[in-house]
Write a structure and sequence with these properties.
The chain has a four-stranded antiparallel beta sheet with strand order 1-2-4-5, with no helix packed on it. Helix 4 packs across helix 8. By secondary structure, it is α+β, with helices and mostly antiparallel strands. The longest helix is centred in the C-terminal third of the chain and has 32 residues. It is globular, with a radius of gyration of 29 Å. It contains ten helices and 40 strands.
């Protein structure tokens, strides 16, 4: 188990911050990995003394790296986004509250194969991050800076001609335009605008190259610390004569954190030959780095009091949350139009034309707004590492991740036009908390129009309605309160204890909905798809030489490609990419498609990953071309014409293919073509821990005596074991001996809340009590919460004289309510009662008053003049030493 990347998180007591870190303690495997050694790292927090460890990042199904708390209290982290059809080398930045709510993108999704990593924040709030190609640069690249909350949208449009990348952050500037983040050596001086050419035909010796940078960190006076390596700073052996010396990292300073013209702008601090210095940090107070701030904003702890009239489907202590959107029409899913050719979504081309699905998630073919009909929510299950001693996972799909359909919900409110001028497509659904999920927008045939290719989560009791549409980050989102789903009394669709599914009966119609009491539904090849092919299709498809050269009787033999062994027919449908060294069947790549083999997300001639609308297999089953194009729309792709197909348009009459069977095949493709390869650890394996909410929280325990615990429980897969509930204390409580199961005889409730009586009203903080609560599902997975109410990090005392929620022992202004604990000058005395912090003000004028603001402005101007004098002195010294 690894616990890595610790960072402080502000708490009311400056001396007792919390700690956020990432951990592999859940023993999960990432969906895809570079070398098989990686393990899933998820976000956790704990008190300063190690108590009250709590998971935050249930959505971290791959890796969360290097969390960092911003001034506004949110946590930023790098996420390995190897989900769905996305390129597995993508590491963007994300934001999340310290309680795990309100996650949001920070760096965007547009840069194929580039990592945004090692970020810091500047005193004005701007973020600085390193960008680098993460296979051959060892973390070295360039630095960019952008505001955390620019005016208007946070991201530029996908096809903004002025943006270097799709969904570039608004206000992004390069701090090191003399280098680059790409997979080739740093440029030679004078060749910064042609770095690739510089790699091929350099005009300088390797040691003279501009070098690359990494590890930015804020320094006093708004300067920026970083690590700089001169020379190539790249170890890709392709550039065999240009890679030495590879790395020589030293600690440097970039004055004012401003854009620099050349490496000469960097001030050397420490650069010992033969030693790679890394991760510089300024060992000064937080207020020195961020004047006017003793620490970041203190966020309140997660509470789950129930939604009341605003959200009656979320009672107090519920293990569920609500998620919705104001519009599926107001979105950012357009593919980025490539520089050449103009086709926004080619079938089988290299590099930028396919960035749409490899880097961000995008439209599946062409469609108009009237085609948007429903939303599908998918539960995204982790995979436990069982490599010792029993072997690993035993399933495959195109993203190597188990998916479960939580429900399919129509979103069109016909006759209601939203503020953007479209038919209202708002929705609100109830889903399990602490379960990773994502969205797919569906057409009237129940097929994917676009897909959010990342993990999402809601915490218990969270109501999240600000998605603003699929990827709608370059637009101002439509106000949810103005939509149908945002009106008081709107009833959210339950996707936690029931699963609604669309029931189309004809192409392009208005499907019905059938709802079952199952908590989830999934589709798999052997159980669900293979019998349909055997009954309806295999009578014609008997060999690889006739009937489209597709043998549907080939599962009796296996095919091995790239170390993976698959049933023969499944291989032909899903994995026969015509790559050299692997068996090749069928008709192969279309003439003129750009390559002789298939490129992701095109899996084979018959199937496109997560896109039934663009898969030939679905066209044959439904008897129509479904991607919004005609055969003449573009060249180099697979064509289909029902008029020249005597069999497939009539499968429903000739061979009895039902609409239910058609939808099964479409859903199978849209789930990434799952294949169960054995038991245990196969596609149907229950590998998800139960959701568990426990009240009182630490803060509630310090607010006064309690007479009962409330335990909310839910399990998506095998269900909660009612007899598994255990509640024990490390001290005697209400007549129960220490260690006794206080919940004996109390049943855990699937999707509900169990009350566990303590036998008396107990002051848990005064008793210095620690409670351990756990529950299991029928598969034996157990979730445990250990909560300490006593003298640890949260022990601010029960006394709270000003009733602001911060105990007197921690309150920086115990006699005046200041729940945010603002402390402008960082002297440990809160703004509300600090009358001396900005000079001899007196008269009761404290921090934040008009008089203080005037004095503060004077001090700010003086500091600016002092910083300019220091900068001028550094520049004069550099000129002398040069």
């Amino acid at each position: 188990m690894f616990n890595v990347g610790p960072a402080f998180v502000a708490r009311p007591s400056l001396a007792r911050p919390a700690i956020v870190f990432t951990s592999s303690r859940n023993d999960f495997l990432p969906p895809r990995s570079f070398n098989g050694a990686e393990r899933v790292l998820q976000l956790f927090t704990m008190d300063w003394d190690g108590r009250n460890v709590a998971e935050l990042g249930y959505l971290n199904n791959s890796q969360a790296l290097h969390p960092y708390q911003l001034l506004d209290g949110r946590l930023a982290w790098t996420s390995w986004e190897s989900q769905g059809a996305r390129d597995m080398r993508i590491f963007p930045l994300w934001l999340i509250a310290p309680d795990g709510t309100g996650f949001a993108p920070l760096s965007g999704f547009g840069e194929l194969a580039l990592t945004h990593h090692f970020m810091t924040q500047m005193p004005d709030g701007d973020v600085v991050t390193a960008r680098y190609y993460n296979l051959n640069n060892n973390g070295f690249g360039d630095l960019v800076r952008y505001p955390i909350d620019p005016a208007g949208p946070d991201f530029r449009a996908v096809n903004d001609a002025a943006a270097a990348i799709p969904l570039e952050r608004v206000g992004q500037v390069s701090l090191t335009p003399w280098t680059h983040p790409e997979d080739y050596p740093a440029p030679c001086p004078g060749q910064e605008d042609n770095a690739y050419g510089s790699a091929n035909a350099p005009s300088c010796a390797p040691a003279q190259r501009n070098g690359k940078v990494t590890h930015p960190s804020v320094a006093p006076d708004a300067d920026l610390l970083l690590v700089y390596s001169p020379g190539p700073a790249n170890h890709n052996g392709v550039w065999s004569s240009q890679d030495e010396p590879v790395y020589q990292g030293g600690l440097y300073l970039l004055p004012d954190g401003a854009s620099s013209a050349s490496p000469a702008a960097l001030v050397k601090l420490a650069d010992e030959p033969g030693v790679n210095e890394m991760f510089p940090r300024a060992l000064v107070s937080y207020a020195t780095l961020f004047p006017g701030h003793a620490q970041p904003l203190v966020w309140p702890a997660l509470a789950n009091p129930g939604g009341g009239a605003a959200a009656p489907s979320l009672p107090a202590h519920s293990p569920f949350g609500l998620v919705g959107s104001s519009s599926l029409t107001w979105r950012d899913t357009d593919p980025r139009v490539p520089a050449s050719g103009g086709d926004p979504d080619p079938m089988n081309a290299t590099h930028e034309p396919l960035w749409a699905w490899l880097a961000q998630g995008a439209d599946a073919g062409l469609y108009d707004e009237d085609d948007i009909y429903a939303v599908r929510l998918l539960g995204m299950l982790p995979s436990t590492d069982r490599s010792y001693p029993n072997g690993g996972v035993a399933f495959t799909n195109t993203g190597n991740e188990r998916l479960r359909i939580l429900g399919e919900v129509p979103v069109r409110h016909e006759g209601v036009i939203d503020a953007q001028g479209y038919v209202d497509t708002s929705f609100l659904v109830r889903i399990p908390a602490d379960v990773p999920f994502t969205f797919q927008t569906l057409d009237r045939n129940g097929m994917v129009l676009n897909m959010a290719q990342t993990w999402h989560q809601v915490r218990p009791g969270e109501v999240r309605t600000n998605c603003g549409g699929c990827h709608a980050h370059s637009k101002e989102p439509l106000d949810f309160a103005s939509t149908v789903a945002g009106q008081p009394g709107f009833a959210p669709t339950d996707l936690a204890l029931a699963t609604p599914l669309l029931t189309p009966s004809g192409l392009g119609g208005s499907p019905g909905v059938a709802t079952s009491g199952a908590r989830q539904v999934t589709v798999e090849y052997g159980r669900d798809v293979k019998p349909i092919l055997a009954a309806r299709c295999s009578g014609c498809h008997t060999s690889d030489t006739t009937d489209g050269r597709l043998d549907l009787h080939a599962d009796g033999a296996t095919v091995t490609c790239a170390g993976t062994t698959l049933p023969g027919t499944y291989y032909r449908l899903v994995a026969d990419a015509n790559i050299d060294g692997c068996p090749k069947y069928g008709l192969g790549a279309p003439a003129g498609s750009g390559d002789t083999y298939f490129l992701a997300p095109q899996q084979t001639r018959y199937l496109r990953s997560y896109q039934s609308r663009q898969s030939l297999l679905a066209w044959k089953v439904f008897g129509a071309r479904l991607d919004g194009r005609t055969n003449a729309t573009r060249g180099g792709d697979v064509d289909y014409s029902p008029a020249t197909d005597p069999i497939h348009p009539h499968l429903d009459t000739l061979r009895g293919l039902t609409w239910s069977e058609k939808l099964t095949i479409a859903r199978w493709i849209d789930l990434g073509a799952p294949l169960d390869q054995g038991s245990p650890w196969g596609w149907f394996e229950d590998d998800l821990r139960p959701t568990l909410w426990v009240s009182p929280t630490v803060e509630e325990g310090h607010a006064g005596a309690v007479s009962a615990l409330h335990v909310g429980t839910y399990d998506l897969e095998s269900g909660i074991d009612p007899a598994s509930l255990s509640v024990t204390f490390d001290v005697a409580i209400g007549g129960h001996a220490a260690g006794a199961n206080v919940a004996a005889g109390v049943a855990a409730i699937e999707g509900g809340v169990a009350a566990v009586a303590l036998g008396a009203a107990v002051d848990l903080a005064a008793a210095d009590a620690t409670v351990t609560v756990s529950v299991a599902d029928h598969a034996g997975h157990r979730t445990t919460v250990v909560r300490s109410f006593g003298g640890g990090a949260s022990a601010c005392g029960a006394a709270d004289g000003d009733h602001d929620g911060v105990g007197d022992a921690c309150d920086n202004c115990p006699n005046l309510a200041n729940p945010g604990q603002e402390d402008q000058d960082g002297d440990g005395v809160g703004n509300a009662c600090d009358t001396l912090s900005c000079g001899a003000v007196g008269g009761g004028a404290g921090e934040g008053s008009a008089m203080c603001a005037s004095v503060s402005a004077g001090w700010t101007a003086m500091r600016r003049r002092r910083r300019e004098r220091r900068r001028s002195r550094r520049l004069r010294m550099r000129a002398v030493t040069a």
